Amino acid sequence: MSDADENGERNTPAEQEHRLRRELPAEVVSGPGAPGAQAPEQSAEPQLTGRQRLVKGLWPPRVSRAQLTVAVLLFVLGLGLAIQVRSTSDNSALRGARQEDLVRILDELDDRTQRLEDEKQGLEDQRTELENSSDQAEEARKQTVEKERQLGILAGTVAAQGPGITMTVTDTKGAVEADMLLDAIQELRAAGAEAIQVNDVRVVANTYLTDGTGGKGVSVDGHKISQPYRFKVIGKPQDLEPALNIPGGVVQTLEKEQATVAVSRSEKIVVDALRAAQRPDYARSSSQ
Amino acid sequence: MIAVLGLVVGVVVGLFVRPEVPAVVEPYLPIAVVAALDAVFGGLRAMLDGIFDDKVFVVSFLSNVVVAALIVFLGDKLGVGAQLSTGVVVVLGIRIFSNAAAIRRHVFRA
């Protein structure tokens, strides 16, 4: 039951007033009425208009039980109002939302998550693809570099190192000739030598050896070298050494010419004599 | 006057102190606020009519709030919480409007 109910249902305020006064004789206090207002005063009050009552209630402020109780209740109302407004503006609809709304929102979020997951999956696939292709490019580049190095070793344009042997031919009598050294080189190549250096000259595909003028020394690629001829050879030592030492082979032939030959294996041979890369005048690569 | 001050203080405290409302009560707060508003308009009208009674006001205020919250609570349990709270808001809104009309007649004589 509320005031509004009673007011709304009964059309005559006077009748209502009477009833209330009968029921609650001591507590009836008209809005503007002072705490000590008595029934006789109230009976005089109906002459007051509503507006006058309102003004009377508002000013001057009076501390009465009615005012205080109403103040407390209105305080509660204001509090609730402010909290509600605050929470509504605080974080969207979620705070005050009821269960079914929350479930719907959750469903929508799930859908959205699903869609985003799909999208993420697609993008990740794409990324993997791109990485692979760039990997391939990287791989191709690496292979090219590697190939360039290998070819550089073959062409003598880069230094090389690895296991191999060292052969020193000491020829105090000057009996060693170019063809003997050529034999040695070819024997080494046949045994799998990958990089060869004689004294300070790199031996490559188009290396040529000639006897030095006056029967002294040997020229390799036009560079005159003199004994002792020091071969640095990179290859498999277990293959190279026997290849030189076979009966009737390089070592025996040289020793027959009164030269001393010393062959030693080594785990690390450095072939660091270089040749300038020559650009061929006529031959061109027929591949791309 | 003191009553109006109470309302103002309540709003200010609510805005600045930021009290935490228990999660259980939270869904019923908006409905309770609307119900309390209805009681307040009813009380204002009664005052203008010269029949205001603080005891009636207290009882109507509290019962309005409790009943409104109860209806929504029941609606939530029955699975028609949204519809029922809409219904409560509509009914309370109509009452607020009719009370406001009576107040307006008193204050503006129109």
From TrEMBL, chain B:
Report membrane topology.
Multi-pass membrane protein
Q: What do the Gene Ontology cellular component annotations say?
A: plasma membrane
Query: Which InterPro entries does this one have?
Result: DUF1290
Q: Does the keyword Membrane apply?
A: yes
The answer to whether the entry has keyword Metal-binding is no
Which is a Pfam family this sequence falls into?
Answer: DUF1290
TM ranges: 29-48, 55-74, 80-103
The protein's superkingdom reads: Bacteria
Q: Which UniProt keywords apply?
A: Cell membrane, Membrane, Transmembrane, Transmembrane helix
Q: Where in the cell is it found?
A: Cell membrane
Similarity comment: family membership? Belongs to the sbp family.
Q: What is this protein called?
A: DUF1290 domain-containing protein
